[in-house]
Amino acid sequence: MFASEYWKEAGACPDIIAAAKSIAAGIPLSAIIARDEVMDAVAPGTIGGTFCGNPLACAAALKTIEIMERDHLADRACEIGKKVMDRYKEMAEKYPVIGDARGMGAMVGIEFVKNRETKEPAPELTSKIINDCASMGLIVEVAGTYHNVIRFLAPLVMTDEQLEAGLDIFERAVSANV
């Protein structure tokens, strides 16, 4: 259910996981998940905060986790990510302004460059693509140090048809600007 699961094959296992934002489906809540020896090293009552233990938020988090497990949303994140990466790789063959595509699960970034060889960032192009996407009904966001990466954060409950429609809009916006 957590991104740290992707690293199991490499033999990595986190000592501490901090979770927040979507853990309670939009209701303010955060959580610290840690190995017993880490949590036992802290004196009782010293870990807390303003969003600690609110009954409504905790109930929302429990229901969110139940739905994530029931609907296999971690697996769905991998499916979405693969479809997005496959589409981005196809696009990279057609559009030399795509410098790289990378991501994990359903969070994928596509980097735009002026020149693939030099990897010179193309923030102006990225901005135009984002604006064109918005005018066609697709919301994407800029990321990266040089503002030349478009981050695609797909809802895990979207249908394949919705995903394809979004990717079609994205490709139209790229095509219109190169």
**What's the gyration radius in Å?**
20 Å
- The CATH architecture classification of the largest domain is Alpha-Beta Complex
Q: Helix- and strand-based class?
A: alpha+beta
Q: H/E series, N to C?
A: EEHHHEEEHEEH
Strand segment count:
7
Total domain count: 2
Using the coordinates shown, work out and report the CATH topology of the largest domain: Aspartate Aminotransferase, domain 1
Mean pLDDT: 91
Within CATH, the superfamily of the largest domain carries the name Aspartate Aminotransferase, domain 1
Q: How does the major sheet shape up?
A: 5 strands, antiparallel
SS summary, helix count: 5
The top level CATH class name of the largest domain = Alpha Beta
Keywords: Aminotransferase, Pyridoxal phosphate, Transferase
InterPro entries: Aminotrans_3 (IPR005814), PyrdxlP-dep_Trfase (IPR015424), PyrdxlP-dep_Trfase_major (IPR015421), PyrdxlP-dep_Trfase_small (IPR015422)
GO molecular function: pyridoxal phosphate binding; transaminase activity
Family: Belongs to the class-III pyridoxal-phosphate-dependent aminotransferase family.
Please give a quick description of this structure:
42% of the residues lie in helices and 19% in strands.
